[in-house]
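Folding Query — how this chain folds
Tokens — whole-number codes for backbone shape
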Amino acid sequence: MPKQLAQERKYNFQEVALGYSHDQAKAEAERCLQCKRPKCVEGCPVGVDIPKFIQALKSGEMSQAVVALKAKNNLPGICGRVCPQEVQCEQRCVLGKKGDPVAIGRLERYVADWDLCQEKSVWCEKATPTGKKVAVVGSGPAGLTCAADLARIGHEVIILEALHDAGGVLIYGIPEFRLPRGIVKSEIEYIKSLGAKLNLDVVVGRQIQVKELLEDGFDAVFLGIGAGAPRFLNIPGENLSGIYSANEYLTRINLMKAYRFPDYDTPVQKGKIVAVVGGGNVAMDAARCALRLGANEVHLIYRRSRQEMPARRGEIENAEDEGVIFDYLTNPTRFIGDERGRVKAMEIVQMELGEADESGRRIPRIKKGSEHIMPVEIVIIAVGTAPNPLISSCTPELKITKWGTLVVDERCRTTMPGVWAGGDITSGGATVIGAMGAGKTAAADMDKWLRMEGK
């Protein structure tokens, strides 16, 4: 897929991947073998009929391609950009056994972008109202998917979002150069066109409780509140000025538009030497944002090797092309501040890999005597997230795990009658498409429950 040149894009927040042209999309679609038993569909967490939408694209039936996509996926423009197709649908493609699999994600993006360019979305059917009312708490991928599926089949859906803008992690966590805000907003508008209503600045757990929602006219509640609380390293000096959690850093940049300060009111500290600690997609996003804010050097500090890094291969390659310096097998042990309380350096150690842990990744161990000092001006901690306990702490009916996630069964039912949950609040930090799959599972079960009047 065409991209902005690395030496140009590292200075702007415009989308890096430029998308297929019509001819490129058609040529790629023609590679699909239209398997009788398509394994790619088995690899899709929301069950998109992949051969069907690709066949429609190949035949020039773009409206039919959109219908085939949106029958299962309410956010195709988002998924086509940020979902890890390489380890899901594309990994199952039979062409991948001897060469490159069909670029399913890129074709999904092409079809979705074609649809967004039309005056009216192809799929805007509305079912007969059922008379049932559902509250969806959170407007991230899980909540949006659940809301869309329920609204499409006739239930009254109210989405309650704590922030001043909808989209959850899609809008505050993922940078504009990877997922343009316009795409997110357009797909939210599509969900609203299905009948879902959106109420912003509503903090469930503070302004209103889950129990009160069920007492005040809602027949069911879905909790899709994500896992937005940051995790830290818990090492000396971590409270120094200039050290950010990736959550705060990316929220300031993406949601609050700190990269356009002072045109927007929220600032973010900048530095010539920036260190990002972590190895996931969030770490890549933070490192690439730091480059765009003017850093001379951005170091990605990761305690394992490139092979163990959990970020998508494409995002690692993009960061490398843009000039991020990868310091593998290294880990910070303490941060050092100046007389003003600002971080000025960090002590790091070299690591070596031992036996594999339960996840299959080899356990990193410190090399004795490898301590050394690295000067830094800004540090961003990107080592994972945890659920915000706001709702669970004031809703004793909701059982939680030792990690703070909500306990749910295979239908996404919580331990509180009439309440479902899905996405990062139940799984911990995971993928957009995984959260969407949970939203679909919950919506299907909620529909059955509502039509049986809760019996």
